[in-house]
Amino acid sequence: MNYSERYMGKAAVFAAFLFCFFSLTTAANASVSVSPVRVYLDDKDNRAVVRVANQGDSAQSYQVEVVSWSQTDRQREVYSKTEDVLAVPPLFTLQPGEEQLIRLGMLEPADANTENAYRMFITEIESLDADEEASSGITMRVQIGVPVFVAPSSAMATASLEFVDLENIDGSTYPRLRNSGNAHVKVLEVRYRASEDSEWVSNQSSFYLLAGQTGLFPFALPQGRATGSLLIRTENHGSMHYELPGVQ
To answer: Whole-structure pTM over 0.85, yes or no?
Structure first.
């Protein structure tokens, strides 16, 4: 299995056709905390520190790896090997209550015009309670994916969502939009209101659309509806409003 195939298993696909942002941590895995949850680098500020704390009651070991992050029209999480950004230490063990500082640094200059995106994966690789896991038949592993964004060195970072079209898949209609800017957009909520209705239908689904990427949003319009208003609320670029023309 090559590197690309290894990380394809981490991709989250929405239904058979859609791509969907996925959270790499859950309430069940709250024994480890990471701060900050996103890292921003550029040519002038090309170093960062991420703090990992073991809040559990047993020692735990972790592996750290940075991968390049890209997207396709159907898949939000596509990873490949990179040497652009380095994270150290690559391995460490934390006793209960201990903290570890992970230091990130750029090994290559930023792209002149476009933001580059990466993920730093912090993965649990060893449990000191293996006997207990074996007896229970349950094995849980923590994996946290921290987004790392490297700003363009020459151009100002901008992002803009452009409505492309609607696609009907197995009787459901999904909006397709394109990030025409050179930096990511983080979507927090998608709202839809049919032309003849006064109330909005809301879907709070947090995900990223990277620079220059086009994708179907994980929000199915109400059955039989394909016209009306679409409101997208983002974390870093305000709210954006669109009038839907219907399925062509």
So the answer is: no
